[in-house]
Amino acid sequence: MADNNSQPQQPPQPEPALKRLDKLVGSWTMKGRTLDSEADNISGRTTFEWLPGGFFLQQRFEMNFAGFEIRSLELIGYDPETEAFSSLVYSNMWGAPLPYQWDLQDDVLKISTEASKFEGRLSEDGNTFSGGWRPIPGMEGPGNVPYDISGTRLK
């Protein structure tokens, strides 16, 4: 006999912490330079959008990094047990997905890998950012070059 008082099962909902990443949604142009350069030698574009359901933020990334063309797809999610945003990056520069960790508190954005860290700040209106990638001490070397970068949201 069916229970007529039972409620229909609701689909799972995204973790509320994911809303912190809403500030990134949209398309951005970027420019910057490696610390050994006197002129900008980095340019690119990135787009962030929520996948249907709102559980994952997708980033599509294109960059000319001092003559190297980089293309990637990244999926960022949230683990409530560790209270951390983690992602995997699939790139034309490496044959395996690369793990990243993200955090966005107020207007401070932090991203890290096992070899380098980014710290940047979004402007008060949320339409620009600036910051820099730095190797973790002991991880310096080819393929892990320190650089500064800024971005502007496309309207």
List the helices and strands and how they pair.
Blueprint (H helix, E strand, L loop, with lengths): L25 E9 L7 E9 L6 E9 L2 E12 L4 E8 L6 E8 L2 E5 L3 E7 L5 E8 L11 E7 L2
Antiparallel strand pairs: 1-2, 1-10, 2-3, 3-4, 4-5, 5-6, 6-7, 7-8, 8-9, 9-10
What's the level 1 CATH class?
Mainly Beta
The appropriate CATH architecture is Beta Barrel
* Low-pLDDT ranges: none
Estimate what percentage of residues fall within beta strands: over 45%
Class from helix and strand fractions: mainly beta
Counting DSSP H or I runs of 4 or more residues, the number of helices is 0
CATH topology: Lipocalin
Task: Give the rounded overall mean pLDDT.
Answer: 94
| Major beta sheet summary | 10 strands, antiparallel, barrel
Helix and strand sequence: EEEEEEEEEE
Distance between the termini: 57 Å
